[in-house]
Amino acid sequence: MARRGWMWVAFALVHGFVAVAGYQLPHAPMGDVYLVYEPWSGCALGMMDYCGPAGRQIVGITEPWVYPALALVPMLAAWLFEAAVSYTPAWAIVVTLVDAVAFAVLLGDARSRGRAIAAAFWLTFMVALGPVGMYRLEGITVPLAIMGCLWLIRRPWLGSALLAAGTWIKVWPAALLAAAVVAVRRRLAIVGGALIVSAATIAVVLALGGGRYLFGFITDQTGRGLQIEAPVSAPYMWFAALDVLDSRVYYASDLLTFQVSGPGVNEVIAVMTPLLAASVLALLLLGLWGVRRGAPVVRLYPALAFALVLALIVVNKVGSPQYMTWIVAPIVLGLVIDRATWLRPAAFAVVTGLLTQIVYPIFYNFLMTDHPAPGVVALLTVRNLALVVMFVWSVIHLVRVARNPESGAGRLASHKRPASVIERFPS
Fold it and tell me: What are phi and psi of 226, to 5 degrees?
């Protein structure tokens, strides 16, 4: 069988394995699908079994919501298959179909070794991270982000439109868009594609009468505390595990998350959002410096995108296991362009994904107590340190690309000169 055929066999096996694992592993990693996605979308469709005393409600339209407006679309799409298999496996089918489109775009005819390695990395990472990557909205936004990044060079209107659609489902692809505005020369096309999608989304929400809740997904974040999986929460997790300094883990029922409390926690919460904004701004300025120094887009864009998504994970008071999927798209793009540089962070990302799955869902119940188990806190700490290491690598790599725009020319030339790399992007 040709390489392409084997890759598609691997695609089917991986998606089947991950989908089934959601039912086998503890702590219901697919719980968000049947606990919130199904009731939200069912009520939006007017199924009264899913609606409360207030009757039919449409999240983001008639009531506040934690997600951007387009997040409801894939939840509604799962109902197309619900009658045959029930809602949760229907969600897995929708994710698999979207993944298949992105996988076909990425793999192409499978003659490119870089694309084949990138596709293999994506599948390997899916297995390492486990079902949480499929049974969350990231299951939809990651393939959109992969296609958007691959199309940014030759078809910037389409690429930016896909990234904008991903942003209106789950905010994180905005980092990929911001990197594109800085690094990609056809900035008007990048901004134009994003504006078209955004304007259409806003117009529909306003027409349905949901204007007051349009940006609720942003304002609702201000009330969040320190979630247990965020790197900044590590000291408090250890204080809680050792039962010192009056620290503990507690469940925030209004946000459906586990958070930490302890001395000075409110001050830490207050500083994290400005610190994240400053980190993102500093990275964007580094990217602009690289543009001014003539760094080629095929080196600068993946470097900047990788650093930005890692900043959103590392310098954040909020943390969830599915956030690990955010690093997939820039690594995939990096492997397509320059696998020699990106193989090491790709391997590190797989290890980070595996550590994440060991923490959640396998040992997560040991964290959901006032005083979590020190052994599991240690695993979570190692995972977070791995994220910090990747973030440091990404910043160093970005600085090198910006400072020495020709430093990778020899390696790219031995693989394919930059112009050829762009020409081989999917059209």
Answer: -90, 115
Tokens 């001050």 locate to 267
CB atoms within 10 A of CB 244: 11
Domain residue extents for the chain = 3-423
Which runs of E-coded beta strand occur in 221-358? 226-227, 248-252, 257-261
Cβ atoms of residues 147 and 427 within 8 Å: no
Q: Give the span between the Cα atoms of 69 and 204, in whole angstroms.
A: 9
CA distance 320 to 228: 9
Peptide bond into 361 cis (omega under 30): yes
Contact 379, 360 (CB under 8 A): no
The answer to whether the predicted template modeling score (pTM) of the entire model surpasses 0.85 is yes
Answer yes or no: are the C-beta atoms of 131 and 85 closer than 8 Å.
no
Q: What is the spatial distance between Cα 152 and Cα 46, in angstroms, rounded to a whole number?
A: 39
Identify whether the C-beta of residue 50 lies closer than 8 Å to the C-beta of residue 43.
yes
Strand 248-252's sheet: what is its strand order?
226-227, 257-261, 248-252
Q: Give the tens place of pLDDT for each residue, 214-240.
A: 998 887 666 689 999 999 999 999 999
For residues 316 and 175, the answer to whether their CB atoms sit within 8 Å is no
- Give me the phi and psi of 227, to 5 degrees please: -75, 150
Q: pLDDT per residue over 27-86, tens digit each?
A: 889 999 999 999 999 999 999 999 988 889 999 999 999 999 999 999 999 999 999 999
- For residue 217, give the nearest of 250, 255, 252, 244 by alpha carbon: 255
Supply 231's token pair: 């790197």
Which positions ≥6 away from 83 have C-beta within 8 Å?
Answer: none
DSSP notation for 73-141: HHHHHTHHHHHHH-HHHHHHHHHHHHHHHHHHHHHTTS--HHHHHHHHHHHHHHHHH-GGGTSSTHHHH
Residue 315 per-residue DSSP state: S
